[in-house]
């Protein structure tokens, strides 16, 4: 751990960041009526895990704050589960989304 100089070097951060980018790309192709509500929610949720990890790293001098921020990141992962369920429903009903 001593050789890590930035939270961006953490595997968990890199994984969260890669996942955020994977989530971001498909939202570019959402139907126009979903571009602002669903797209915004998905993008915010995907970024918030990375933000919470960064905040926890900055608070690591204070164990309680560190753990609190990690808990925030964990709570966001639950949002990922919800978002994933929404994406699966959309994929299973692609005809509804693809008819313009």
Secondary structure elements and their pairing?
Layout: H1 11-27, H2 37-58, H3 63-92, H4 94-98
Nutshell version of this structure?
This protein has four helices and no strands.
How would you describe this protein?
The chain is mainly α. It has one domain: de novo design (two linked rop proteins) (Up-down Bundle), CATH 1.20.1440.60. 74% of the residues lie in helices and 0% in strands. The chain is built from four helices and no strands. Helix 1 packs antiparallel against helix 2 and helix 2 runs antiparallel to helix 3. The longest helix is centred in the last third of the chain and has 30 residues, at 63-92. The chain starts with 10 loop residues before the first helix and ends with a helix. The model has no long low-confidence stretch (mean pLDDT 83).
């Amino acid at each position: 751990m001593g050789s890590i100089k930035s939270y961006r070097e953490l595997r968990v951060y890199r994984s969260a960041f890669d996942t955020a980018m994977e989530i971001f790309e498909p939202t570019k192709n959402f139907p126009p009526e979903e571009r602002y509500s669903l797209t915004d929610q998905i993008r915010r949720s995907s970024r918030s895990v990375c933000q919470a990890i960064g905040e926890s790293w900055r608070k690591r001098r204070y164990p309680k704050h560190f753990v609190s921020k990690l808990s925030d990141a964990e709570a966001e992962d639950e949002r990922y589960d919800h978002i994933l369920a929404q994406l699966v429903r959309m994929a299973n009903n692609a005809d509804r989304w693809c008819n313009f």
